[in-house]
User: Fold this.
Amino acid sequence: MDDETNSPTMTNGFHLVVDALMLNGFDTIYGVAGIPVTDLARMAQASGIRYIGFRHEASAGNAAAIAGYLTQRPGICLTVSAPGFLNAMVALANATTNGFPMIQISGSSDRAIVDLQQGDYEELDQMNAAKPYAKAAYRINRPEDIGIGIARAIRTAVSGRPGGVYLDLPAEVLGAMLDVELGAKSMVRVIDAAPRQLPAPEAVARALEVLETAERPLIILGKGAAYSQSDAEIRAFVEQTGIPFLPMSMAKGLLPDDHPQSVAAARSYALAQADVVMLIGARLNWLLGHGKSPQWSATARFVQLDIMPTEMDSNRAIVAPVVGDIASSISALLATLKAGRVLPGSAWLGDLAQRKQKNTERMATRLAANPDPMDFYSALGAIKGVLADRPEVYLVNEGANTLDIARNVIDMRAPRKRLDSGTWGVMGIGMGYAIGAAVTGGNPVVAIEGDSAFGFSGVEIETICRYHLPIVTVVFNNGGIYRGDDVNRGGGTDPAPTVLMKEARYEKVIEAFGGEGYYAADPESLSNALAEALASGQPALINCPIDPKAGTESGHIGNLNPQNSIVPKNESGGTRTWR
Ligand code: ADP
Ligand code: TZD
Ligand code: MG
Assistant:
């Protein structure tokens, strides 16, 4: 090393990035090392930032995204150029779609060469490639802009509707020198990154007026409500109004699933019959049938609480839009609410209670059955029993049947503990979310994974073992995507498109990395294995064979498959569907 680079009067881009992150309170980076960011990861670690190294950038990005959701601070994902950048882009886009704050920082190659497309190592115009998939994409071109660039990324990620921000760091900027004093002066500590956004008083009054006229009101809690961390206020509003509520998937546990006002067990009846619907941090997207009939009453009136003004009237007219952050909006509603003025009709509550009862009994019968091989219900019944006393455990969940049935069977009792495929219904979030949750929250994680879903991020089991994280992965092995019993319609020896290996011993994967593997073919073994694995606090994987015939095509959303009533030539028998 020469005198100049060691000079205490000079600093460089690497140091300035670490300084800016530390100044803004970041304590963890999720990434994959390589040119040009290896030294950045090393220096971050040397400075006391925890660096979690992954096997694939998508998982690093998913870990950062879920850390953002859980903490209201952007999770940081670090990648190399072009392919590493693109690998993480799915996670960045998914974070943006779900409204999770994260910042993807990628190193990039020489701009002069990239822009003339002269064939640099890992050449790609990353900033422009990121734009359609991110809430915003920025590039820092000078070391003296690192402070302001990171501040800009933080504020964009967390303010308004949170999302994923891409920050491009050319290799040249990382190595560029800057006077230490100038560097220090260029640092920016972001003040009030996600400022409160107060709703207009007249919007609050209008919302209450609409609720007061309701006979059959219903509250839908979405993951925006969970994100806002105004748990006590939301609970107070629900309880003081007495309005029945339905949690969207990731809002489960915001109020406990066994709360008397939860009508999750009478979901379709509640949606179809409600005359006034109050959406709290939930979009009227495909997950809610776009708010349209027949799923909803054509005459229902909607109240919506959201931070994003353009979410109002996106799919259906909103008669009382309340634009603001949910914590402020709920507080304002509570402050204005007059006792006894919002009063759900007793016939409505009675009808809902009756439906709930019937559906709960039907579910109990399914859970009590003990088929051999296990089906989704018997396996989930075993897990439900173990988790009943562990509300602090994070539940990560992906798959099709594995996702849809687990969502209905496993009760959540604490907010922000259920982490799943979300708005896109994406596969591949499993191990990244599990790692992000374990690292951020320190609590144990149970990841319930379809065998297909697990494959998308399964190699991160090595990451879990390397960092000794308290994550128990349960693989529901039904030998396929959706079901494991499909046949090759061409008659050849290749498996059908949806078929995976029924006999796969997934538990051996974790054994290869020193974790504990279990094979659990009946509910009792599954229950014992899960209890033991959770008690150990060590990485474990439980392989559960599930009847390949047990699931349905696409789980609960088979209706979204395009109609296909014409069979190919070599399938005789006229028009009939395959499913
Ligand atoms: P779900 O899938 O659970 O129905 P969505 O992701 O569709 O939930 O909707 C969440 C909504 O919450 C988004 O429209 C987002 O703008 C909004 N949101 C997120 N955070 C806040 C907040 N702090 N205050 C108000 N609205 C928020
Ligand atoms: N690729 C990505 C990234 N996301 C997706 N959602 C899909 C493909 C399509 N897909 C689903 O929507 S669910 C699923 C796929 C491949 C897997 C279902 O199989 P599984 O679950 O084994 O995970 P079940 O329990 O067998 O239904
Ligand atoms: Mg499967």
The pocket of magnesium ion (ligand 3) is lined by residues 450-452, 478, 480 (CB under 6 Å). The longest strand covers residues 102-108. Residues 305 and 322 are 5 Å apart (CA to CA).
